[in-house]
């Protein structure tokens, strides 16, 4: 096996893992019972999957200078996903879309009550 | 190796179908926004897989645009829901 | 914006043109991003990046923030290593939970951070959100408290989850914080 072949195999395996994470995100999206839980699967495998895909793709394209682009994609994703998921979670909680029966401890409720 | 590429394609297709299912099931607009987010993520992943398969870096800008678009869409939907909810609370005389 | 009466401390890395400030590290970052976008390492690209960066900072001025950012190489390495391990482990856990038969029970925990720096609060919050299994529901920047929705954390596991976020905060402080902040976090935030 030559060097490029080994790189290709590593990259395919990384891509496979990334695709599997996307699939898991889809499963979680359908199976979780409430919005806040679904949010976990939506935002997270997205980041991890994207990192895996980008590294795999980077290995495939390696000598091309445009690989730097992938770094930007990952960076933007890591910076924006927390903001988006925080805003969505905040709105979901405040508009009362929480399944109380699935919550163990809720330390935010007491804090919001006195308003 | 071609089998692995097929598996990747199938997994991504299944992920998109599941996202589509949540998009149809709802029940609230936030769930749908979330489903769109996941669909976009699968699209980015799919484009990445395509680029890797053909060793074709010309589609990379699409990945970046989709990543930013996902952010803008989910933030704007959330803000829309928050504002509408505030409107409902005010008209019912419940203070926020 | 800071009111005109409060003149922010002048940093040697700032370039002033009238009332506008051009922060040199920001300019450098923008130039690098510009060159990455075009995927080309050449003098023309670098000059174009500097030009566009300058224009951006002149047209869209940002309020001056005191960053108080220090980089500690060892702390940074520890932080990044832990971050990657956390990312992998918790991804696997969330995947397992989404295939589990019964839906997981979750908790919303209040986590009063010990740091008093906005930057460390932000970095900690970003890490908490990126690591699977936790979503930030609310941030109180006044009391530096995060409210985190923890997936699959029932009443008995709550303290454990809280301890993990505190440990994360400590690693963030050791990687990015000023000495003062590190001491505050170590002391348990009693100051």
UniProtKB/TrEMBL annotation, chain A:
- Span-the-membrane segments of this chain are 6-30, 42-62, 68-93
Task: Look up the domain of life of the source.
Answer: Bacteria
UniProt-recorded Gene Ontology molecular function terms: sodium:proton antiporter activity
InterPro entries from the UniProt entry:
PhaG_MnhG_YufB (IPR005133)
Q: Which UniProt keywords apply?
A: Membrane, Transmembrane, Transmembrane helix
**NCBIfam families named in the record:** CPA3_mnhG_phaG, PRK12674.1-2
Q: Which PANTHER family match?
A: ANTIPORTER SUBUNIT MNHG2-RELATED
Q: Which family does it belong to?
A: Belongs to the CPA3 antiporters (TC 2.A.63) subunit G family.
> What name goes with this protein?
Monovalent cation/H+ antiporter subunit G
- To which species is this protein native? Thermobifida fusca TM51
From TrEMBL, chain B:
Where is it mostly found?
Answer: membrane
> Could you tell me what this protein is called?
Cation antiporter subunit
Provide the species name: Thermobifida fusca TM51
Record keywords: Coiled coil included? no
Question: Transport: present as a keyword of the record?
Answer: yes
GO-annotated molecular function: sodium:proton antiporter activity
The subcellular localization recorded is: Cell membrane
Q: Which residues cross the membrane?
A: 6-25, 34-53, 59-82
GO CC terms in record = plasma membrane
The membrane topology of this protein is:
Multi-pass membrane protein
InterPro entries under this entry?
MrpF/PhaF-like
Record family assignment: Belongs to the CPA3 antiporters (TC 2.A.63) subunit F family.
Superkingdom per UniProt: Bacteria
Record's keyword terms, sorted: Cell membrane, Membrane, Transmembrane, Transmembrane helix, Transport
UniProtKB/TrEMBL annotation, chain C:
Q: Coiled-coil segments, which residues? A: none
Where in or outside the cell is it found? Answer: Cell membrane
Molecular functions (GO terms): monoatomic cation transmembrane transporter activity
Is Transmembrane helix found in the keyword set? Answer: yes
One Gene Ontology term, aspect cellular component: plasma membrane
InterPro entries (alphabetical)? Cation_antiport_E
Q: Where are the transmembrane segments?
A: 21-37, 43-62, 74-99
Q: How does it sit in the membrane?
A: Multi-pass membrane protein
Predominant cellular place of this UniProt entry's protein: membrane
**Keyword Cell membrane annotated:** yes
UniProt entry keywords in alphabetical sequence: Cell membrane, Membrane, Transmembrane, Transmembrane helix
**PANTHER family on file:** NA(+)/H(+) ANTIPORTER SUBUNIT E1 (PTHR34584), NA(+)_H(+) ANTIPORTER SUBUNIT E1 (PTHR34584:SF1)
The UniProt similarity line reads: Belongs to the CPA3 antiporters (TC 2.A.63) subunit E family.
What is the name attached to this protein's record?
A: Monovalent cation/H+ antiporter subunit E
Q: Which organism is it from?
A: Thermobifida fusca TM51
């Amino acid at each position: 096996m030559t060097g490029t072949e080994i790189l290709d195999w590593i990259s395919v395996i990384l891509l496979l893992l990334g695709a599997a994470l996307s699939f898991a995100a889809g499963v979680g999206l359908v199976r979780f019972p409430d919005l806040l839980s679904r949010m976990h699967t939506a935002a997270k495998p997205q980041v991890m999957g994207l990192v895996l895909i980008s590294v795999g793709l980077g290995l495939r394209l390696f000598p091309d200078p445009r690989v730097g682009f992938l770094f930007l994609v990952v960076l933007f994703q890591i910076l924006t996903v927390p903001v988006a998921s925080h805003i969505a979670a905040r709105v979901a909680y405040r508009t009362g879309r929480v399944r109380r029966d699935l919550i163990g401890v809720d330390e935010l409720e007491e804090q919001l009550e006195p308003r | 190796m071609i089998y692995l590429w097929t598996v990747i394609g199938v997994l991504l297709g299944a992920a998109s179908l599941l996202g589509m299912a949540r998009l149809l099931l709802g029940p609230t607009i936030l769930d749908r926004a979330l489903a769109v987010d996941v669909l976009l993520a699968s699209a980015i992943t799919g484009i990445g897989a395509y680029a890797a398969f053909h060793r074709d870096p010309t589609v990379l800008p699409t990945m970046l645009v989709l990543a930013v678009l996902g952010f803008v869409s989910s933030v704007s939907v959330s803000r829309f829901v928050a504002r509408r909810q505030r409107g409902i609370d005010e008209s019912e005389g419940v203070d926020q | 914006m800071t009111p005109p009466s409060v003149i922010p401390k002048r940093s040697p890395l700032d370039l002033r043109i009238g009332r506008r400030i051009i922060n040199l590290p920001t300019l450098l970052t923008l130039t690098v991003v510009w060159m990455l976008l075009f995927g080309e390492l050449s003098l023309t690209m670098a000059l174009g990046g500097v030009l566009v960066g300058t224009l951006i900072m002149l047209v869209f001025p940002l309020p001056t923030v005191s960053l108080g950012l220090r980089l500690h190489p060892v702390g940074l390495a520890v932080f990044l290593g832990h971050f990657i391990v956390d990312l992998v482990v918790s991804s696997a856990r969330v995947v397992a939970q989404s295939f589990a038969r019964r839906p997981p029970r979750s908790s919303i925990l209040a986590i009063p951070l010990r740091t008093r720096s906005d930057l460390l609060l932000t970095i900690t919050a970003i890490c908490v959100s990126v690591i699977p299994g936790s979503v930030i529901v609310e941030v109180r920047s006044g009391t530096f408290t995060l409210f985190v929705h923890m997936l699959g954390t029932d009443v008995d596991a709550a303290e454990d989850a809280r301890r993990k976020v505190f440990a994360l905060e400590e690693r963030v402080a050791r990687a990015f914080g000023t000495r003062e902040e590190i001491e505050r976090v170590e002391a348990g935030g009693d100051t």
